[in-house]
Amino acid sequence: MTGTARRRLAAPTLAMLPRIADSLSFLYAEAVRIVQDDTGVCAQVESPKGVDRVNLPTAALACILLGPGTSITQPAMATIARHGTSLVCVGAGGVRSYAGIMPASLTTHWLEKQVRAWADDQTRLQVAIRMYEMRFGVGTAPAGATLAKLRGLEGQRIKALYRMLATKHGIKRFKRNYDPDSWDSQDSINKAMSGANSCMYGVVHAAVLALGCSPALGFIHNGTQMSFVYDVADLYKARVTIPLAFSLHASADPEREARRRLREEFRALKLLPQIVADIQTLLDPESTPATAGDRSVDVVHLWDPHLGPLPAGVNYGVDSFDAYDSFDLQVE
């Protein structure tokens, strides 16, 4: 088989690509070179025996986290983008999320819903209330609650969760601390929690990008390009990353163990499909699960405030100047 034939076989079609909700969660890469070969994308790993190649199932991944020492070629990035897989640049161990790359073929359907909900103070508050009730139960938000009230209630619940988990694992005292500048001096729980949260941010970032939403338009967080990512990730911390971190209080390598265990949690809890469905419910409570995470390319249309969406690729010009009889056309 020639190289051209192999490349054609490796080229994806829309029918071949899985939905984001069906994808594997994330792959963390560090100190490797990611390249495109004749059959797909692979990671080149240097070893004492030479350079080993590991094929990456990019079409089945929701997100690739690019850690320190990782380089990637333009052909590999183009293939990953065609597959609809998000690339997120992160710090060592997955801590800190710096930037993400969004495929250009995405529909703006959910972005438009996000912008409409975000731009109005009342609908923005309603989304924030839905976020709170997703975390702590329907009806737990007091009637007429403000964001300040919700923040106070959330803080009380999280402190109570810390106390309960500390008692469960025999820990006398715990204080949440996240300081990247003094990372090595932190205890195992804080390291595990920060590492797990960062991976969670990467996966949520991938889900947000896969839906075509803006990571910057948050409903509770504000002022950063990751605001909406932080909003959505907070929905799962009390259920996933916080208990996971406390369970690793005696781990010798809490960051690495947190990443490994988090991948297992994503599979066991089917969390990625849940993230996609939850984002859609937050932005449009009337949405149906049948449309969740569809990667199909929407047909580009034109906006009209009175007629609604109009087909693109159509010349709407008139055939003659007869339609402009009411205008005074002057030729100088």
TrEMBL record:
Gene3D superfamilies: CRISPR-associated endonuclease Cas1, C-terminal domain, CRISPR-associated endonuclease Cas1, N-terminal domain. InterPro entries: Cas1, Cas1_I-E, CRISPR-assoc_Cas1, CRISPR-assoc_Cas1_C, CRISPR-assoc_Cas1_ECOLI, CRISPR-assoc_Cas1_N. The keyword Acetylation does not apply. GO terms for molecular function: DNA binding; DNA endonuclease activity; hydrolase activity; metal ion binding. Mn(2+) binds at E154, H221, D234. Its cofactor is Mg(2+); Mn(2+). One of its GO terms (biological process) is defense response to virus. Its EC number is 3.1.-.-. The keyword Transcription regulation does not apply. Keywords: Antiviral defense, DNA-binding, Endonuclease, Hydrolase, Magnesium, Manganese, Metal-binding, Nuclease. HAMAP family: Cas1. Belongs to the CRISPR-associated endonuclease Cas1 family. Homodimer, forms a heterotetramer with a Cas2 homodimer. NCBIfam families: cas1, cas1_ECOLI. CRISPR (clustered regularly interspaced short palindromic repeat), is an adaptive immune system that provides protection against mobile genetic elements (viruses, transposable elements and conjugative plasmids). CRISPR clusters contain spacers, sequences complementary to antecedent mobile elements, and target invading nucleic acids. CRISPR clusters are transcribed and processed into CRISPR RNA (crRNA). Acts as a dsDNA endonuclease. Involved in the integration of spacer DNA into the CRISPR cassette. This is CRISPR-associated endonuclease Cas1. It comes from Thermopolyspora flexuosa. The gene is cas1.
